[in-house]
Write a structure and sequence with these properties.
Layout lengths: L11 H8 L12 E2 L11 H9 L1 H4 L10 H15 L9 E4 L2 H12 L8 E6 L3 H9 L3 E8 L5 E2 L6 H6 E7 L11 H14 L2 E5 L15 H7 L8 E6 H4 L8 E5 L1 H14 L5 H11 L3 H22 L12 E5 L13 H13 L1 E2 L1 E2 L16 E5 L4 H18 L1
Parallel strand pairs: 1-11, 3-4, 3-6, 6-7, 7-8
Antiparallel strand pairs: 2-9, 4-5, 8-9, 10-13, 12-13
Helix pairs in contact: 2-12, 4-12, 5-6, 5-11, 8-9, 13-15
Length: 407
């Protein structure tokens, strides 16, 4: 067996199952899960129709790993409309089976484990795929502290120059998971300067870009590069998907876009890896990327839901509306920490909430790594407001009752 497999950490939801193994949730209340970021809004009907219409022809041939010209052009057209960036659909766009698998596979393409000290930099807290991709690529992760005073924005200045010098890949996530912060242009400029100086590649995870609560849409990596005159998109790759944007996580459809010199070897890797997208999924994806009406409606639903739920939770928790994404990143009372069992405040909070009120939330410490004796997710929980408004409101009311009763 590949010895690097032993370095993979248990996934957050595996740890959650273990945390809850001995708990019997309150049977008088129906279960409500805010634990997993799985979109629950209805998938658009036109997309289902596009899937069905392609079944007769789409299942009878092997797909090309590069995808159809129609799909690549649809993706490039969306980037043009959304970010004002013109891409060559043939050389700067590549369809992928969701951003998760692409983020992992891209690291295997970029990382050179034969170079001493191969390093992958990532924010902390973070999406655990980044870490796993680094380990399996033969590199060491470097976890960058995130500043709670700046909505958990990464403190890139805390990274020593010696670490940047051996960095091969930088993962960024904007809007961020779990706190929902959006990277501004000056932060992008700082990262581009570091990339130019040290030669590392930037992988920009933007899967939450279409769910936002401010007037302006979140700035994307490709857009930032263009604003700063980096029209060749050198050492930059953007990752996005339809999962959150179009409420189709089961479709497993997304694309990567950016530096053509990175797309070419990534396509080679995916050709051998078997990363081609089903023709049926490609046909539906063309329809999805070409329609913006369902995205606007989806965003409206999230805005209305967060406007109702966030003030209720803010009465009993330290929590605020994020810039974007569909998570609330809430601080829980430190009094929940249990020295006798060794449970952190976020773990104990999650256990008691499930036992008493049958609501599931994810401990923040499961989304981060301890560095210097500190886990930056400790004392916070992530709540995914993905269900219908009534269910999310009921969950908020239960959390209010839970904390009021405990006070």
């Amino acid at each position: 067996m590949n010895p690097l497999l032993s370095r993979l950490q248990p996934y957050p939801f595996e740890r959650l199952r273990k945390l809850f193994a001995d708990i019997t949730p309150n049977p008088a209340l129906r279960p409500i899960s805010l634990g997993i970021g799985e979109p629950k809004h209805a998938a658009p009907d036109f997309l289902k129709q596009a899937l069905a219409a392609s079944l007769d022809t789409g299942l009878s041939s092997y797909p090309a790993t590069a995808g159809t010209p129609a799909l690549r052009e649809a993706c490039a057209a969306w980037v043009q409309r959304r970010y004002g960036v013109a891409l060559d659909a043939a050389t700067q766009v590549l369809p992928v089976n969701g951003s998760r698998e692409a983020l992992f596979a891209f690291a295997q393409t970029v990382i050179d484990p034969t170079r001493p000290g191969a390093t992958v930099v990532m924010p902390n807290p973070f999406y655990q795929i980044y870490e796993g991709a680094a380990f399996l690529g033969g590199a060491e992760p470097h976890y960058v502290a995130c500043d709670p005073a700046r909505n958990f924005a990464a403190d890139w200045d805390s990274v020593p120059a010696t670490v940047w010098a051996r960095t091969q890949l930088l993962f960024v996530c904007s809007p961020g998971n779990p706190a929902g912060a959006v990277m501004p242009l000056d932060e992008w400029q700082r990262l581009f300067e570091l990339s130019d100086r040290h030669g590392f590649v930037i992988a920009s995870d933007e899967c939450y870009s279409e769910i936002y609560f401010r007037d302006d849409a979140p700035l994307g990596g490709l857009e930032a590069a263009q604003r700063l005159g980096r029209t060749d998109l050198h050492r930059l790759m953007m990752f996005t998907s339809l999962s959150k944007r179009s409420n189709v996580p089961g479709l497993r459809s997304g694309f990567v876009a950016g530096d053509a010199s990175l797309i070419k070897p990534f396509l080679l890797y995916r050709t051998y890896h078997g990363g081609a997208m089903s023709p049926v999924v490609q046909a539906a994806s063309v329809a999805a990327w070409g329609d913006e009406g369902h995205v606007v409606d989806n965003r409206r639903q999230y805005r209305e839901k967060f406007a109702q739920v966030t003030p209720l939770l803010a009465q009993v928790l330290d929590v605020a509306l994020p810039d974007a994404s569909f998570y609330l990143w809430a601080a829980v009372p430190a009094s929940f920490a249990d020295a006798a069992t060794g449970l952190s405040a976020d773990e104990a909070f999650a256990r008691e909430l499930l036992a008493q009120y049958n609501v599931t939330v994810l401990p923040g410490s499961y989304l981060a790594r301890e560095v210097g004796g500190v886990n930056p997710g400790t004392g916070r929980v992530r709540m995914a407001l993905v269900a219908e408004p009534a269910e999310c409101l009921e969950a908020a009311a239960r959390i209010q009752a839970f904390l009021s009763r405990r006070a």
